[in-house]
Amino acid sequence: PDSVEIASGMPSPDTVPYVSATFKCKDGSELHIDEETMKRITPYQKTRGMPDMIKWMTIIHKEFHNPPKMGAAEDGSQWGVTLCPGALGGMDYLFQEIMRKNDVVFLDEFAFGGTKKQVRKNRAVYVGLPMDGDGVIPDKLRDYLDRWEEVSLPFANGKKLNKPRVICMTPVGQNPTGVNTPLKRKQEIYKIAQEYNLLIVEDDPYYYLQYSETPIPSYQALDVDGRVVRIDSMSKFITPGIRMGWISGPEEIISNTSKHMSLSCMSLSCFTEIAVVKLFDNLGIQGLRDRVKYLRDFYRERRDTVEELVRKHLAGMATWTTPTAGMYLWLNISGTNDSMFLADKELCKKYKVYVVPALDFACDTTKKYSQIRICFA
Questions:
Q1: Is residue 163 located within the same domain as residue 272?
Q2: Structure pTM?
Q3: Can you give the C-alpha Rg of the chain in angstroms?
Q4: Which of 22, 158, 276, 332 has the fewest CB atoms within 10 Å, counting from its CB?
């Protein structure tokens, strides 16, 4: 305590121009950052996050997921958490840790483009798993694993591909299909993951946008082995521009993932972290529950409005399944096997409506698809 610090390369706090700050919220509350707090947060911060932020992440997971590995014996499989610069940034660091050249990663049949790019960035290969109205089909997953040598031939291109070790899914309000995987289906897939020793990456930014009074438990809530890594996002929970996500799961993987981040951005912005900490401190756990209810009701109302308009104007021209979570409606266009014409730039400009064709999300781009995604957020 009485030592003189001349070792670290920490800039002098006397040069920091900020003294205090105040965030005004829609509910009229003000979140004040005083001078003492500003002095504490403006030096370099820990890669995994400020202690107060990590405390809130732990509270949130205990409240909404209650992972079996939380508080377990410290053997590397116990639950851990780290912040990351948005869910996609976190995925970048995580994939660096768990993927190697010529690895094969299972994805949803239709997957977020950023996820596919992250797999390719790590010189790995993705394979889309067939889906139905409940998400990835367990029997198809098992079949692909059992017949891997045969299944992999069409896309191996002469390379020796590693047997899949990772399956990455968006099980709630899936982007783009809007599918919400029920508990029984999750239990079936988790059992297969146990049998074949798969790591499940639960990319779940829409978890808090489930419309039912009782949300479907996450894969992490089922994880007795320490084989589930969750990626969460503040983009849908608070706001996209705050660029905060968090990754949680087996401590060994989380620790190594944070090391990749430490060699890049090192940590999140101190202002981002303290803004969220102050908001959560102000809300408290009951306020967070109320926030989830608000998001649920808001997006459910949006879905109802858009679905009513689709019924009115697209009757006989499209079919769909009513989404029970998320922000997307997945329309199957009747009378065509290729929806790409709806993404024609001139057509979109003319009618001032922009949609995303299924091909943009498809893992298998050799086929044609009749679906489009519309966002009702």
A1: yes
A2: 0.96
A3: 22
A4: 158
